[in-house]
Structures are given as C-alpha cells and as structure tokens.
Amino acid sequence: MDKRLQLLYFSATGTTAQILKEMASGIGQIKKEYDITLPMNRQGELAFESDDLLIVGVPVYAGRVPEFLTDYFSKVKGNHTQAIFIVIYGNRDYDDALLELKDTFEKNGFNGIAAGAFIGEHSYTTLVGTGRPDREDLKIAKKFGVDIKTKLSNGDTQIMKVVVKGQYPYKEKVARPLMAPVTNDNCVMCGLCARHCPVGAIHFSDYKEVDATMCIKCCRCIKSCPADAKAINHPAFKEIKQFLIDKFGNIRHEPEVFM
Ligand SMILES: Cc1cc2nc3c(=O)[nH]c(=O)nc-3n(C[C@H](O)[C@H](O)[C@H](O)COP(=O)(O)O)c2cc1C
User: Fold this and answer.
1) Which residue ranges does the record assign to the Flavodoxin-like domain (predicted)?
2) In order of start, what are the domains of the chain with their CATH numbers?
3) FRET label pair with 225: which of 154, 196, 202, 213, CA 20 to 30 Å apart?
4) What is the pLDDT of residue 52?
C-alpha cells in the first residue's frame, strides 16, 4: 500500500482502539497513531495530506459522536485525505453517530471511502455486549481491512464514496441529571483515575472528588481502578443500566460495514 496509514481514536475503555488496530492489521503497517483519549493529546491542530489514509474511530455516546470531541475534531484537517470512519457501540444502537462522524470529517477535507459500526461491551455494564469485540468481531474487522486494501490497490479510489446509515436531524440529546462516580473506602489514593480521566474531572488534590459537571460517564475510572473503589450509584444511572440489560442483554447485534 502506498498510502501512509494513520489511526485517530478516542477510546475510554479500550474497545474502539482494539477494533481499529485489528482493521489496520488487514490494511498494512501503521505509520502513526493518535490516541486522543487523554486531554493532553487533544491540544493543538492536526493536519493530514493526500497521501495519508486515516482510520478514525469513536465510541457511540447517546447515539452520537461524543459531544466533547466536537471542538477538537473541528481542528483536524484533511487535504483530499482518504478516510475510514468507525463507530463502536454497546449493543443497543449507533443511531446517527456514523453519519455524524462522516459529515464532521468530510466537512474538513477528508473523503470517506469506507465505514463501519462494530460492537463493544457496554461501558455501563458487563451484561450488555458481554466480551465484545470477540473473535468473530475481530475476524470481521481484519477482513474489512483486507477488503479495503484490495479495493485501494485495484485503483478504484476515485469512485469510492461511502454512504452510511443515519438520519437528519441527528438524534437529539436526552437531558439527564448530573451524575458522577462516587468513591468508597477501598480507595488507596493511587491517583490512576485522575491521570486516566479523559476530561480531567477527577481532582488531583483529592482523587475521591469527581466534578459532576465535567464527568462524561465514560466509566474509565471505574473500570481501571485497581481497588474497585469507584461506581456511579445515582438511581437514574442504575435505571438506564437495568433498561439496557433487560432490552439488549440477550440479543446480539452484528458489525455492519459500508464500502
Ligand atoms: C456516555 C455513554 C453513552 C453511550 N451510549 C451508547 C449508545 O447510545 N448506544 C450504544 O449501543 N452504546 C452506548 N454506549 C456504550 C459504548 O458505545 C460502548 O461501550 C463502546 O464499546 C465504548 O467504547 P470504548 O471502549 O472505546 O470506550 C455508551 C457509553 C457511554 C459511556
């Protein structure tokens, strides 16, 4: 492949990164990887050229591209750069997230040549999308990469213009009460949660304090805590979690790819 393969992703609990890397392994060697999960990696602007091939991936949050990334994405510029858009969702639905991701990047100089929606274990509970992506998902992701590579090497690139599922206007934001993780006495003040928080919502002066106005409920601090000290106990959160388990705990969505 004569393009410079690059990855750009946000991945709070690791599933988006996993799918992107597996796909990339079907295409070729990764030249550069931009993991924008931490705030310090979302500083400044980023520019890609026409000889780059960018795979961009985000998790679906409330049927959309995570809102807090909008500002940063407006500063990522392409120059007739070919791009592959990927969303990962927790076995409920991806609604308009893939369309929104494609629109966002195509407005900024990227040409979408392929896209996909894959399933990851739901950030809120291990009982929805349990163990995803699994071996089958990873096989599909890699084959998708191989198919893209084949298409690119056949030189069909001019006619590639990907069309994805999604609707206008995009799914509306649902108003939810403020809720953030609380910390129990297991906390050993190691500070891992604060260093790993994608939005800097955990106080460095007291790791037990989480700013609910900043928290995006990505659950990274909960999942990465070695002492199992963080949890969201808000009744509204428990209700959503139970709804997801009841409705989507026993069904299996399959990845969808568009080329
Ligand atoms: C705030 C938030 C909102 C979410 N909204 C949805 C959704 O609308 N549909 C869905 O199927 N999964 C949803 N999920 C689940 C994630 O999309 C899914 O767990 C994904 O695999 C997380 O990616 P990551 O591991 O790269 O962070 C949501 C997760 C979070 C944290």
Assistant:
1) 5-149
2) 4-169 (3.40.50.360), 182-245 (3.30.70.20)
3) 213
4) 97
